[in-house]
Specification:
Blueprint: H1 2-6, H2 15-28, H3 33-39, H4 46-57, H5 68-81, H6 85-89, H7 97-114, H8 122-140, H9 146-155, H10 180-187, H11 217-221, H12 233-242
Helix pairs in contact: 3-4, 5-8, 8-9
The chain binds a DNA duplex (21 and 21 nucleotides) through residues 10-13, 31-34, 45-48, 50-52, 54-56, 83-86, 97-99, 101-103, 105-107, 110.
Length: 243
DNA sequence: AAGATGATCAACCGCTCAGGC
DNA sequence: TGCCTGAGCGGTTGATCATCT
């Protein structure tokens, strides 16, 4: 109806709208969002209703901070698939693609900006791969040396190719690796299949030496921050000198 | 205390794709 | 075959909150 379309609402949802949407879905189920919006008496587009339900009202939506385990998995999966947020979100039950996308744009891209490089650049990918991820592993493991964490991360982590990585239940039994990233993946579903080998999570062979950008003695001398934030001002400064 | 600035995240927009007719 | 509709995805915006000066 034309009058109804003119009155379509946008912007933040009210409690009443939320209640109407939840009640309707509880009785009738989801889907057919345009007609659902009309039948539920909501002056919203079907698209808006779908988004509100999926990203906020669904009972299994998980809120709160992204844990180090989740951060590690996000970094790992993004290195494989890039900005394919919905695909990445499949590995985080209760997390929405929107939430993961926001995390990446705010936290991860912020670090890239600090380092004055592009988040999609090889330089930044190296920082993520060789510095950030090992540090997260350290934190997840409750301490230990950086080198041992990196070694664990690098040696036992299998390669997963785009064609292999179809997150489906029948593939989950193959996830029998001792690597940290893999054991993390195993906590989530759907789980990616694996194939063995001494490969880096990105799929390529683990390099014999670190990239040139990080092959400098100061890095080994660096005192890693013990606080909540993985990156200190000194970290940023040191890395910037290498770029 | 108040304004400026930055970070976060809910919501919107434009586009693509699949399925039905 | 082409059109329409529903659904989903990724990029972007804007409101709100926190922190800084």
């Amino acid at each position: 109806m034309e009058v109804q379309e003119l009155e379509l609402r946008s912007g933040p949802w009210t409690r009443e709208e939320d209640r109407a949407l939840m009640n309707y879905i509880a009785v009738n189920g989801e889907g057919k969002w345009n007609s659902l919006a009309r039948r539920a008496g909501l002056r919203r587009t079907g698209k808006s209703c779908r988004l509100r339900w999926l990203n906020y009202l669904r009972p299994d939506v998980r809120r709160g901070n992204i844990t180090p385990e989740e951060q590690l998995l996000i970094l790992e999966l993004h290195s494989r698939w890039g900005n394919r947020w919905s695909k990445i979100a499949q590995y985080f039950p209760g997390r929405t693609d929107n939430e993961i996308k926001n995390y990446w744009r705010t936290r991860v891209q912020r670090h890239a900006k600090q380092l004055e490089c592009d988040a999609g650049s090889q330089q930044f990918r190296d920082v993520v791969r060789y510095l950030w991820m090992p540090r997260l592993l350290e934190r997840i493991g409750g301490g230990g040396s950086r080198t041992s964490a990196a070694a664990e991360f690098g040696i036992a982590t299998p390669a997963i190719t785009e064609t292999e990585a179809k997150p489906s239940p029948e593939n989950s039994t193959a996830a029998a690796s001792s690597s940290s990233v893999d054991s993390l993946s195993a906590q989530f579903s759907p789980q990616p299949p694996v194939s063995g080998g001494l490969m880096h999570p990105g799929g390529e062979l683990w390099p014999e030496s670190l990239p040139k950008a990080f092959d400098f003695p100061d890095l080994e001398q660096m005192v890693w921050p013990a606080g909540e934030d993985l990156w200190s001002a000194d970290d940023i400064w040191l890395l910037q000198q290498q770029f």
